[in-house]
Design goal:
single chain; 25% helix; alpha/beta; three-stranded antiparallel beta sheet; Rossmann fold
Length: 299
């Protein structure tokens, strides 16, 4: 799971990103609204650990080391960062990205084999800016997932290419719920009105994180400390009143029963000290003894 805790990035004159907290798990698509474009790019760079935050942390599966987060994340189509050049042909882009994949060269797929595998062999000789925007998004996604260690995809402004909202949200959701099941974050200009999945906003705390922080407090208020007398009603969430849990003096506490997983240990039998065959045990005292015999008289 990716967790950003008060992630903030400073700019030269003004902050690029105000403190932002969010979380996304594997197999989930999270849409994050941010304005303007520099803020979207800064958030995408921060979530993928490609820009050091001025405040806060970004972590994956319990570790907040930027190198570890960077290793399992991929930044996709970020303007002026890693956006592919428009004058490239599709085949040239694929050849360039496959050459940069980690691992031994004999393990890498051939260009034609890779394009045929992903159903893009018909696009090989077309210019990148001439293909359908959704096909372009699909191509960049497949190239990002070519690295087997990638578990997190961060898309920077996938809504800027004029793809219908239903189409790009449906496609990114299919990527998140695929067999690979990566965590997918899309930093967008505006969250579609029909989107019912996870959402967040730059400069704010994600709604589900706020609820998670409130639940432990509400649970502690409802349960309260145990006492020997009845407790007064306490106020809980929703302005409803509920009696506090209490125990009276007559309430018996259940006796602990032995666990079925713990073996029963029989007490050791004490040896019978009255057996005649048992040799007597000599007890040596550490204290010095005094002799009480009378001194012999000299004859």
């Amino acid at each position: 799971m990716l967790i950003a805790d008060n992630l903030a990035i400073a700019g030269r004159h003004l902050p690029l990103l105000n403190p932002t907290s969010l979380a996304v798990a594997r197999g989930e698509l999270l849409l994050v609204a941010a304005e303007p474009q520099p803020t979207r790019t800064a958030l995408a760079l921060g979530l993928s650990a490609r820009m050091r935050p001025g405040e806060g942390t970004v972590g994956w599966s319990g570790t907040t080391a930027l190198r570890s987060v960077r290793r399992i994340s991929a930044l996709v189509d970020s303007p002026e960062i890693n956006e592919p050049e428009a004058h490239l042909k599709v085949r040239d882009l694929v050849a360039e990205d496959l050459a940069l994949q980690p691992g031994p060269i004999w393990r890498r797929s051939g260009i034609d084999t890779w394009m045929k595998k992903h159903g893009m062999d018909s696009l090989a000789n077309q210019w990148l800016d001439a293909i359908d925007p959704l096909e372009r998004l699909t191509l960049l996604t497949h190239l990002a997932l070519e690295d087997r260690s990638i578990e997190l995809l961060v898309f920077d402004s996938p809504d800027r290419h004029g793809i219908p909202e239903d189409d790009w949200t449906r496609y990114l959701h299919s990527v998140a719920t695929s067999r690979r099941a990566p965590a997918v974050v899309a930093v967008v200009q505006r969250i579609p009105e029909k989107w019912e999945g996870s959402r967040a906003h730059a400069g704010q705390v994600q709604e589900k994180l706020e609820l998670a922080q409130e639940q432990p407090c509400a649970h502690a208020t409802e349960s309260g400390p145990r006492s020997a007398t009845a407790a007064a009603p306490v106020e809980v969430a929703g302005n409803a009143l509920a009696p506090a849990l209490s125990l009276t003096a007559e309430t018996p506490f259940p006796e602990a029963s032995p666990s079925p997983h713990e073996p029963e240990i029989e007490p050791a039998e004490e040896p019978d000290s009255r057996e005649p065959d048992e040799p007597a045990t000599e007890v040596v005292s550490a204290e010095p003894t005094l002799s009480l015999r009378a001194p012999k008289e000299n004859s």
